[in-house]
Write a structure and sequence with these properties.
Blueprint: H1 2-8, H2 14-28, E1 35-42, E2 49-56, H3 59-69, H4 71-79, H5 84-97, H6 106-109, E3 116-128, E4 136-145, H7 152-155, E5 156-163, H8 171-189, H9 209-213, E6 223-231, H10 233-240, H11 284-290, E7 311-313
C-alpha cells in the first residue's frame, strides 16, 4: 500500500492517476471503484482550460470497504478506541460546550449519537521531484474520522489527488470541492450506496460496482456527520477563498488582527486580555458573509454541519509561520 501511495504522488497525467488508484484498490482487496467526475484543468501545451473526466474515490465506498473488512479495519479507520458510550458522551459534550454543536443538523436529525461517526476533510499539498529548481506539488484530498488518531495510511481515506500545475485559476479547486461536497452531503444525509451518479443524477452503468450495490447500507449500524476540515494555512486560504490570511495585511480569517503598523490597535502580536482584535471576532454568519472572496464561495461551506469553528490548522505548520 505504501508503495502504491508513493507512486500516485509522482504521477501527473489523468490516465496514470486513474490506473494507480484502481490498481491500489485491487491490491488491497477492497470492494470500491474509481468514479470519474467532470473537471476543468489547464492544458499543459496550450495553457488554456480543457474539460476532462477525472477519477475520485467516494467516501461512502471507502467506508463500506472498511466495514466489510471487519472490526479491526473499522477500529483503525473510523472508530479508533471509541465505544458507543464514549461517542455519545463526545456528542453531548459538543452540544453543551461548543458554539457549533447546538446548530449542527445532527442534533435535529434524531440519529443515535452513539452510532454517529464524525468525518472531516483533510487537504494538503505534497511536494515531489524535489531535486528540480521548482519542485512540483500535488494536492491530496482525503477524509478522516474524528475518533481515529494515528498513521495516515490507516486513518485517512483518499478522495483524489491532482498536480497543482493543472489547476485552472480557482475553478479547478471549486469543482473538486464541489464533488466532495456532493459525496459528503449524500453520506451524512443517507448512508447508503447512491442510486444515481452524484455529479449528474444519472443512472449508474450496469457494469459498475455502484450499480450492483445501489441502495445498500454503507456500514450497517453507523451514521455519519460532517465536522469540518483540517489543513495548513495555504490550504485554508485556497480552499475557503479567504481574503484575510497569513499573506494578507489582515492575517486572521476570524477577526481583524493586522500585521500592519498602520493598525496598532489590532496588531496581531498583542496577546493580552485587552487586545484590540478581540472585539472584532466574527461569528459563523459574519465569516460566511465577509471573509470569502465574492468570486469564490467554497463548496465546503454548503456541506450540512459546516461551521467556521470546525475549520482547524495542521499545528505542525504554525511554528514555521512564526505563529508560535
Amino acid at each position: 500500500p505504501l508503495r502504491r501511495q508513493r507512486q500516485m504522488c509522482i504521477r501527473d497525467s489523468t490516465s496514470n492517476v486513474e490506473r494507480e488508484l484502481s490498481t491500489w484498490a485491487q491490491d488491497m482487496g477492497y470492494p470500491f471503484e474509481v468514479v470519474k467526475v467532470p473537471l476543468t484543468v489547464k492544458d499543459q501545451k496550450t495553457g488554456r482550460p480543457v474539460d476532462i473526466q477525472y477519477p475520485v474515490l467516494y467516501p461512502h465506498s471507502f467506508i463500506a470497504s472498511c466495514s466489510e473488512q471487519g472490526q479491526h479495519q473499522l477500529q483503525a479507520s473510523l472508530l479508533g478506541e471509541s465505544t458507543a458510550e464514549t461517542r455519545a458522551q463526545f456528542w453531548a459534550h459538543v452540544y453543551t460546550h461548543t458554539k457549533w454543536g447546538p446548530v449542527h443538523p445532527l442534533f435535529q436529525s434524531g440519529k443515535p449519537l452513539g452510532q454517529t461517526v464524525g468525518l472531516r476533510l483533510h487537504g494538503d499539498a505534497a511536494r515531489y521531484q524535489k531535486r528540480l529548481a521548482s519542485p512540483s506539488r500535488v494536492l491530496i484530498l482525503s477524509t478522516s474520522s474524528i475518533f481515529t488518531h494515528g498513521c495516515s495510511w490507516d486513518s485517512r481515506m483518499l478522495f483524489t489527488l491532482l498536480d497543482t500545475k493543472l489547476f485552472w485559476r480557482s475553478l479547478t479547486m471549486q469543482q473538486l470541492l464541489g464533488h466532495y461536497r456532493d459525496a459528503m452531503r449524500h453520506l451524512c444525509e443517507s448512508p447508503i450506496w447512491p442510486y444515481t451518479t452524484l455529479h449528474s443524477n444519472q443512472p449508474w452503468p450496469e457494469d459498475t460496482l455502484h450499480y450492483e450495490r445501489k441502495g445498500e447500507l454503507v456500514a450497517p449500524g453507523l451514521e455519519f456527520a460532517f465536522v469540518g476540515m483540517k489543513g495548513d494555512m495555504e490550504w485554508r486560504r485556497d480552499s475557503m477563498g479567504e481574503r484575510r490570511n497569513a499573506q494578507a495585511r489582515f492575517i486572521c480569517p476570524k477577526c481583524f488582527a493586522s500585521k500592519s503598523i498602520a493598525h496598532p490597535e489590532t496588531y496581531y502580536t498583542d496577546v493580552t486580555d485587552e487586545a484590540g482584535w478581540l472585539s472584532t471576532m466574527l461569528d459563523n454568519l459574519d465569516y460566511l458573509l465577509n471573509s470569502q472572496h465574492a468570486k469564490f464561495v467554497s463548496p465546503v461551506t454548503e456541506i450540512p454541519g459546516f461551521h467556521v469553528d470546525t475549520v482547524s490548522y495542521t499545528h505542525l505548520t504554525l511554528p514555521t509561520k512564526r505563529i508560535v
